Amino acid sequence: MKTLHGLDYSLKIKNTIINHINQAQKNPFINYYFIVDDPLYFEEAFFKYTDTLFNIRIITYNDLIKKLLEHYQLYSYQELSKLDKILITKQLIENSNNLFNTNSKMDLIYELIDIFDLFFLESFSNSELEQLPPLAKQKIATIIGLYQQLTTSLPNNTCYKYEELLFEQIDNSNVEDHYIFISEQIFKQRRFELIKKISLYNDVTILVNNSSDSRDLNKPFNKYHGDQKNVFENDNPYLSHLNKYLFSLRSPKYENHTPLHTIIQTTPKAQIESVVLNIYQDIVDNHMHYHDYAIYYPNQEYLTLLVDTLNNFKIPHNIKKSLIFKELDACLLWIRYCLNHDNNDLLDLLDTKVLSRYNDFDYLDLIKKNYLEKGYLEDPFSTLYNFEKAQSLDDYSSVMINFINQEMLFSQNQTMLINFFTNLTSPQSFTLADFYSLVNQLKPSLKEDIKPCNDHLYLLNYQQCYSGILECKKIYLVGVNETVVPKQNKDTGILLDQDYQILQLPDLNHQISVDQNNILKVLNSQTEFTAICFSNGTIDGQPLLKSSLYNQLKQMFKISNIDINNDYYHYSLKTNLYLHGGKDIELSSLNTMIKHYIQTNNQPDKLTVPLFSNHLSASKLETYNGCPYKYFNQYGLKLYPFKQPLFQINEIGTIIHYVLEKTQALFTDNITASKAEVDDLETVINQHVEQYLNEHGLTERLNYGTNNYIIKTVKHDLVNTVIVLINQMKASDFYIVGSEVDIYRNYPDFKFSGIVDRVDQYNQYLKIIDYKSSNKDLDLSLAIQGFNIQMLLYLDTLTKQKKLDKGALLYFNTKKRILTSSLKINESELSENFFKLYRMNGYVNSEVVEEVDNNIDKDSAIIKAKFVKKDDCYKGNILSSFSFERLIDYVSQHIENLYHELANGNIGINPKGSDDATVFTKVNPCTYCNYRSLCNFDVFYNEYTLVDSNNLEHLLEEDNSDAN
């Protein structure tokens, strides 16, 4: 056996190819087998030197194994499949009840099988375990025991891997073949032993990428050598310097010209775009071909970026697109739904469009809308395809085959899926969770069946070091950031790095050495141009460090920077062109829109056609006051979001109003309140809530679990609310004269309407109360500027129509309160302290404070007011009759101005705001706005309409000369 060593990887392979082509031509009746990892690339390389491969076969290592099996007619034997390994290992773990017998054992089994494969390929024998800590010793001993049980419990005519079987069969019956190995797969002990035995009867050549020095990159391959050990050396001074010092502790400078360049970008996406742009421009400028370029990528993230960018540029490449296997996705969604009963999985299953009963898009939209609004989704499958009776793998697969046959649209993919589950059989006991894990582990994938263009760019990972033999003229190494290239290998498996070292198996240092060796192969591509590409950060702003590889190359060689600011433009990057301040004169419509956007500061034109009714409500006025553009979308265009399955605040409020109206007889006045019985109050409230839900068809929405909790909470809150209202009415001279009272009023230019939750009266004074399911208050300074003016308008309208005086406007929060007490555990809390938690927000006329609360002493338990003895008056949320009227005057003037803006068609994107953070939170409507995606508020062009953050209550005082 001849081994060809040296680090000049590409040139070594080229010479090997040329030499064996010449030999094959001289010996046409002898077969020459090239065993490689990627035959298609090597076929391209061969055809650069010959027109035919008459007696040259380019095959994989697995193809070689099949060839040997056929030659020795071992047809009755089979290799243990991955499914068999999983099933046997699972049975062994469950029978022995060892430390791996956990709820997550399936994930452990998959990792154990990889360890078992490594044991086999490295011809593992028992190691000395005495020096290990007890837990590590138990773990490793358990793993070794499972491996030994697995390998000794194989079915008849079954081997763990074919190498074991073939080693005993190799003889001199086939001595004419020549084997040339250019593959990483052979560097495992058992495989290498098999090749050595083949070399006893056949001519065998192995290419090994290593040298005689002590660098780590050589160590994984030092033990692999044959009887004839030849070293291939290159006379290229740049490559000689590179191969001698890279990844060593010495980095002497090479002063001559090198092919090394660098591209530095802000993010990986920008890096890939710069690479592709550089290639595109080079092809245009220098009349190059696509096959002159290769890009090396480190992981799936970079590959996805490369494929997307190249597809945008219409540049052909060698990567076949992964297809979405919708039928398999549907099966996994169905199993997962049966496992977790998450309606979102069931909805996604229906939306796969592969089910015969759910292939109508309009019908699917109706189902989605119903689910979004009501939270209810019918399960049409569970009764037909029930996993509850399934016990074995056979049972679960049978249910799935039935589901596929009966529910899925016929297709080639359906047939493939049935075959998959047909082979997924065993009488072994399984749970649904284990079955789901197994299907995920063994699931097939789909690739597009399209042959690459004859002239295409090469995308290669760092293990596919073929750019040199493909004679690419320029290569790009992307992702050269620390922990990416070279890759960071983590010590996170069942076996830790220390365990691998004790077992004398390949450890983390071995993998690091292999990665370094592969990088050196890539750099030995003998190209005229090599670009090292990296990024300074991620798209979310996290910094990325340049790789130690780049730092050492920069110490060793002169590296030229590629100017990424050159005017490289392509139609697929027009957005970037505009982002950098440029424009494409051919896109006249877009340019006109951008010009208009800048000139108008992202503001819509005023409406020229009346779009709004002159019938207004307080909520409409408050919406327009907060943001005219929101008003335009909500009341002009009438754009409404989907109803949510969760009960919304307004719906909860309606239920509360209904129940309070039904129980109002308990607190109509102080006499009825004093006689009120509350022993059966909880039952009464429950009945009223259920009655409302039935009358309004809302019981179906209780299928949405959160709604059950909300209704239960509302019922509890209402018990406290009614008790508090009874207690408040006991201490008041006011009495209820109306509930859910309609309000109508004609202003000079518009009509105004609304509904008041509750109206109380005492002599010539009216008091109105608004029941709220959350905290709300009246800020006088903001009310002057049009915020929370609903109750003020209602009170003003009622008192003017009834010719009465303004007594109070109050907000009652029905939300349950939690009493915090400082008393000892054996002391009783005063009920008054609990009732004080329910004090109403709002304002009371100073003339009727005692009539609202007869029991007011220091602090009122009903309103936010208290008696200040030294001033001999009440203070708090109290206004005089004059202040009430002046406040109404300000509000009236403000709404007239609002209507004038509205009538003139102003729908500007100028929401209210404030420089004061607390005030901003109160007045800005954007946080929970449903129309943010429509207005696209632009901080560079749009501005908030700032409110006055100062305290304006002084404007309401009788002696204020600045008022009005």
UniProtKB/TrEMBL annotation:
Entry coiled-coil feature ranges: none
Q: Which SUPFAM superfamilies match?
A: P-loop containing nucleoside triphosphate hydrolases, Restriction endonuclease-like
Q: Which residues form the PD-(D/E)XK endonuclease-like domain?
A: 615-936
Query: What does the entry give for GO biological process?
Result: DNA repair
Q: Name one GO molecular function term.
A: ATP binding
Keyword set, alphabetical order: ATP-binding, DNA damage, DNA repair, DNA-binding, Exonuclease, Helicase, Hydrolase, Nuclease, Nucleotide-binding
Among the Pfam families in the record, one is PDDEXK_1
Q: Which InterPro entries match?
A: P-loop_NTPase (IPR027417), PDDEXK-like_dom_sf (IPR011604), PDDEXK_AddAB-type (IPR038726), Restrct_endonuc-II-like (IPR011335)
Q: What protein is this chain from?
A: PD-(D/E)XK endonuclease-like domain-containing protein
